[in-house]
Amino acid sequence: MIKVYGIKTCGSVKKALKFLNENGIEYEFVDFKKEPVGCDKIDKWLEKVDINLLFNNRGTKYRTLKLKELNLDSNGKREWLCKENLLIKRPVLELEDGGVIVAFDEEKYREIFNYGTWYPSSCYFVF
Fold first, then answer.
1. Residue 10: active-site member
2. Among candidates 40, 53, 77, which has minimal Cα distance to 126?
3. 69-111, pLDDT tens digit by residue?
4. Domain boundaries, the chain
5. What is the rounded distance in angstroms from the CA atom of residue 88 to the CA atom of residue 100?
6. For residue 118, is pLDDT > 70?
7. I need a labelling partner for 76 at 20 to 30 A (CA). Which of 62, 63, 70, 124 fits?
8. Considering 10, 39, 82, 123, which one is annotated as catalytic?
9. Minimal CA–CA distance to 1: which of 37, 34, 33, 26?
10. Burial level of 90, CB count in 10 A (0-12/13-18/19+)?
């Protein structure tokens, strides 16, 4: 079963969940606020997607923490993701085959889930 990681108040997460529900795709939702993910999970995702995709440098938490001023490298971004899950770009979908999808793009979701164009363990979205 697909696991969807995010927070319920996030607009992108809401859109992704709506898409999955409307298309009859079963999933388990993991709320970062209730069940934070640790470094092990983040490292697993980073085997599949680039740190710059997973690290949300546009969100409120990033601005609040003033992380832009720190000019973080990949290791610094990873450390921050581990201690502050709200810096993870949302949603993160973990597929049964080990693939990881980051963020929501309805057109891309349609391609992946409706037309079978998922490429195991290698697909991610760039915005």
1. yes
2. 53
3. 999 999 999 999 999 999 999 999 999 888 999 999 999 899 8
4. 2-114
5. 13
6. no
7. 124
8. 10
9. 26
10. buried
Altogether, the residues listed in the chain come to a count of: 127
Q: How far apart are CA 120 and CA 95, in angstroms?
A: 9
Instruction: Yes or no: say if 28 and 4 are a contact pair by the CB < 8 Å rule.
Output: yes
Category of 66 on φ-ψ map: left (φ > 0), alpha (ψ -120 to 50) or beta:
left
Distance CA 56, CA 27 (A): 23
Buried b (16+ CB within 10 A) or exposed e, 37-75: beeebbeebbebbebebbbbeebeebeeeebeeeebeee
Fold assignment, 2-114: Glutaredoxin (3.40.30)
Which band of pLDDT confidence, cut at 50, 70 and 90, is reported for residue 114?
A: confident
Residue with tokens 């164009």: 117
Return the structure tokens found at 4: 């969807």
